[in-house]
Amino acid sequence: MASTALLWFRDDLRLGDNAALRAAAGADALVCLYVLEEEGVRPLGGASQWWLANSLRALDAALREKGQKLILRSGNAAEIVPALADEIGASEVFWNRRYGPAEKIDGQVTRALKQRGIEAKTFAGALLHEPDAIKGSTGAAPKIFAPFWKRLRAAGDPPAPIRAPSKWPSTKRVASDDLADWSLEPTKPDWAGDMRDAWAPGEDGARKRLHAFVDGALSTYADSRERADRDGSSRLSPHLRFGEVSPTQVWHAAKHALDAPAKERPSPASVDKFLAELAWRDFAHHQLRAYPKIADENMRDQFDRFPWSEERKGFTAWTRGQTGYPLVDAAMRHLWAEGWMPNRLRMLTASFLIKHLLSDWRRGEKWFWDTLVDADPANNPTNWQWVAGSGIDSAPYFRIFNPVTQSEKADPDGDYVRKWVPEIAKLPAQFLTAPWEASPMELEEAGVRLGKTYPEPIVDHKEARERALGALKKMTGK
DNA sequence: ATTTTTTTTAC
DNA sequence: TAAAAAAAA
């Protein structure tokens, strides 16, 4: 009897290194499905929705070249997947495993399929190593990154990536939603223009980005990643978020760069740093799994009694890039325009919101969730709790970034600030980190009127720092 | 994955 | 006296 397989795509919108796909392609007929889930997973923010729409289009186009197409359905996956499996007469349903609260849905799907006599076949592919593979001396995954990273390294390289199937089964005609009806992309104000220029969602875009990075910025990654004025980041985060490239593919590509001739070879320190960043992604997924409410609850409950400021004006100024601290503002405007900012500036802007404005980290996390194209249910809350100090493994409460010092280090010539805060672009570089220090004459020559064309700092750094240290110290009870 | 203050060291 | 290192937050 001819077999039919259902392949359920989720956060793995790729054909390469896709174990579930490889296995499903062994059937006689194949149907590929994506479900816009309305239950059991965190609803996507605006920027991520834009990315998803483009990634789904890219995946559908790639599948059509193979005689397939991507079937779209929306609703509760626990009902949709078994129903579709029934509809097409599938004997097996394939997917790559995901981790965290979404596992509950997958369990429901598995049980519903079993009742119908259909087998769920699941595979690894979302992380470098599956959560259960990394264990500390207690048998649980280490809750601190350093030992986690040590264990992950000790586990060795993840298995080599596998290729997309070379032979494809036939497909079946199945009704699909129309992507346009999902309204994932902006219409009235089309705010995605800068995103279209900055990104190429989809597996091809991911592959090109990976190669560009491995052949380019990786060589100086350890230093360049700290610089806002250089393209030192890999910019792979949204591709990884939607699984257009697997962390395994990225890991092996970075390691492979060490085999290049000496002249083109990246420094081992840079490769190591980059691999550690990849490991942070695994670490965050472990954290999400251990703390399903990581986006809503402090991991350290002493933060439950911290008197966060409910004030709105400062928060709004932060979201709009109007704090009066040029590097903070540049980064927040960059985020709004391209749906992304480099890691160092995420730390700086998050620190500013939490420590300088005393805003609850959850407000900031939600803003990033809505505006980042790479908004990830594990990474985003993990990193916000890290900056807040409320995470199990996190920065100590007294770690407060100085926005001026950071500006001097990350953007010494002011190129990044000039790009995103053009109203002060004519100021000499020395004042682009702190325009309030320029004399009235220098401000006038640059066409800057503080408080009019560009804000005065909404808080004084020294005062804000002392205020935060006092409040945080009081919270700890010491 | 820091900043600021204090202390030490090196001219 | 200034830079570097250490300590404290």
TrEMBL record:
Cofactor note: Binds 1 FAD per subunit.
Signal peptide interval: none
Family in the record: Belongs to the DNA photolyase family.
E.C. no: 4.1.99.3
Originating organism: Variibacter gotjawalensis
Residue sites binding FAD per the record: Y221, S233, S234, R235, L236, S237, F274, D374, A375, D376
Top-level division of the source organism's lineage: Bacteria
SUPFAM superfamilies from the UniProt entry: Cryptochrome/photolyase FAD-binding domain, Cryptochrome/photolyase, N-terminal domain
Enzyme class: lyase
UniProt keyword list: Chromophore, FAD, Flavoprotein, Lyase
Gene Ontology terms describing biological process: photoreactive repair; response to light stimulus
Catalytic activity: cyclobutadipyrimidine (in DNA) = 2 pyrimidine residues (in DNA)
Molecular-function annotations in GO: deoxyribodipyrimidine photo-lyase activity; DNA binding; FAD binding
Name of a matching Pfam family: DNA_photolyase
Name by which UniProt lists this protein: Deoxyribodipyrimidine photo-lyase
Domain called Photolyase/cryptochrome alpha/beta: residue spans: 3-128
